[in-house]
Specification:
The protein is an alpha+beta fold. It has three helices and 17 strands. A hairpin with a 4-residue loop joins strand 9 and strand 10. The protein starts with a helix and ends with a helix. 28% of the residues are buried.
């Protein structure tokens, strides 16, 4: 019975935490460049797994077989590229990030909703300069803009077409060190970026890699699991109370 109580408790804890993750994923299903977070689980080890069963902690033996939420990992899967018709909107097909200069330093994003400032700087809608391969701002003069798959930016003027810069595409050997900031910004936490392999698609913006329908179903599923664990915990708790009030006085 006590083992069942521990199982119900760890299950409720894991499902409650997973509920927050599922709700956040669903809330950002319409956010450009959003990367969903996925739960992973780990065992609860109150004692060593190789302990002698006769001397091992009873609590440890009871809970070692039950998983709790170990944390969240960013899902780096590709989101859908949606055509916008804006020549300064850029989408990424494959692995990589754009780099933008924020008030907190360089941050990385898959959101390519860009525009040209009054001074000609390519920037985000929040006014953050987009960086080139050398992590310098990109200036785009007036004229028709064309962006190639490798990020090279050329502008057609009266004198012909001229390359004015190259949008940087960066990647990381180990993406597990990236930390999400807000809905679609990521901090590298000191990790050094390398050149990304993603192709740049002009006139498109990448959507979230979380489907609204699947996200809704996941949220409902986790909510029901949490309710089930809560009911199970209540049953075990009431059973303990009954044992304490009725059976123990007879001993």
């Amino acid at each position: 019975m006590d083992s069942g109580l521990y199982a119900a408790y760890t299950g409720l804890l894991a499902r409650t935490q997973a509920l927050d993750t599922a709700a956040n994923n669903l809330a950002n299903a319409g956010t450009a460049g959003f990367r969903a977070q996925r739960d992973y689980f780990s065992g609860v080890l109150a004692g060593g797994v190789d302990e002698d069963p006769e001397t091992a902690s009873q609590v440890g033996q009871s809970v070692n077989g039950f998983g709790v939420l170990g944390g969240n990992r960013l899902d780096m899967g590709q989101g859908e590229l949606k055509a916008t018709g804006n020549p300064l909107d850029l989408g990424l097909e494959g692995q990589g990030f754009f780099a933008v200069q924020t008030a907190r330093g360089t941050r990385y994003t898959r959101d390519g909703s860009f525009l040209r400032s009054s001074t000609g700087v390519l920037q985000t809608r929040e006014g953050e300069p987009v960086l080139d391969a050398n992590q310098k701002p990109i200036k785009i003069p007036s004229g028709s803009v064309y962006v190639s798959a490798d990020g090279s930016v050329s502008v057609s003027t009266a004198d012909g077409s001229v390359i004015v810069g190259k949008v940087g595409v960066f990647d990381f050997a180990d993406k597990s060190g990236l930390t999400a900031e807000g809905a679609n910004r990521f901090s590298a936490n000191g990790a050094k970026p390398v050149a990304g392999t993603a192709a740049v698609e002009q006139g498109s913006v990448e959507g979230a890699n979380e489907d609204a329908v699947q996200g809704t179903m996941q949220l409902v599923l986790v909510q029901r699991q949490a309710e089930m664990m809560q009911k199970a915990l209540s049953v075990f708790n009431n059973e303990f109370d009954k044992t304490a009030s009725e059976d123990l006085p007879r001993v």
